[in-house]
Amino acid sequence: RSATRSITRRASGSPSAGPLDGDGVMVSPPRLPEWDRVPIKALLREHTRFPVTVDNDATAAAIGERWAGIARTTPSFAYLYLGTGIGGGIFLDNQVYRGRSLNAAEFGHMTVEPDGPECYCGNRGCVEAVCCPSAIEAAMGGRASHQAVCAAAAEGEPEARRVIERVAERLADAAVSVVNLLDIDLLVLGGPALREVGELYREVIARAVSTRTLARRLHAVRVETSPIAADAAAIGAASLVFHATYAPRLGALLSG
Question: Maximum CA pair distance of the chain?
Fold first, then answer.
C-alpha cells in the first residue's frame, strides 16, 4: 500500500484524444483540429513536474476495465468505447495491444455502410460516421440532443427507438468483425455515450455475436456493459500509472 501511495504521488496518467505518437504528441486529432502537433505529454510533465503517462482515451478505458472493471481475469478482450467519437482498446493474452504507431483498435473506422456518409478519415460509412452522437442527432433531423434521443428510445418513443436500434445493428456488424478477427473471450461496451441505451446496445450486439461469429460453436463470447462505463476514461487514466508500473510487459521480459 505504501508503494502505491508513493507511485501516485510521483506520477500522473492522462487519457488523450488520438492519434498520439510515441512521444505523446497529438497528431491531427479529428475532433480537436487546433491541437495538431501539441506535445501533450511534455506539457503535462513541464507543468506538473511529475513523470507523465499518456494514452489514447479508449485504450485507457480498456486498461481501467482491466484494473477496476469486469475484465480483471480475462486474458483476451476488446473494449468498444462510445464517446464523442467511437474507439476501442484490445488486450491479447494479458497484454494491451497498441499497434505499430500506438493507435490500434480504431473500431470506429470499420466500414459498415459502404454507401454511407463520408467520414473525416477518408472512408465512407464508418461506424463513427453512422453511430456517433452527432450522427444520431442528425438522424433525428437535429430536433433533439443525443441524450434526449437516448432517453426517448429507452422510454419506447417509436422514432427514437428506430434510430437507436439502427445504430445498435451497425455496432453489432462491427462487433462481429472484431470477434472474428481477434477470437477473444469478452467484448466490453463502455463510454459516456451509452447513457440510457447501454442495455439495448448490449442485447443487439450479444445476439449478433452469438449467432454470426465463425467460432460460436467452439466457445461463447460474453458481451457486457462496463460497470464503470460513464467514468471509464477517467478511471483508465488513474490506472495508467499502475499499469505502467506493475503490469508484465512481454517485450521487457524478453529483453531482460
Answer: 60
Cell numbers 493474452 correspond to what residue? 93
* Residues ≥6 apart with Cβ < 8 Å to 158: none
Q: What total number of domains does the chain contain?
A: 1
pLDDT digits (tens, 9 = 90+) for 24-68: 787 777 667 777 878 878 888 888 888 777 777 888 889 889 988
Residue 10's domain comprises: 2-255
Q: 243 near 8, Cβ under 8 Å?
A: no
Q: Which residues of 184-199 are buried (b: 16+ CB within 10 A; e: fewer)?
A: bbbbbbbbbbbbebbe
Residue by residue, DSSP assigns 181-230 as HH--SEEEEESGGGGGGHHHHHHHHHHHHHHH-TTTTT---EEEE-TTGG
CATH assignment of the domain containing 210: 3.30.420.40
- What does the DSSP 8-state code read for residue 35? G
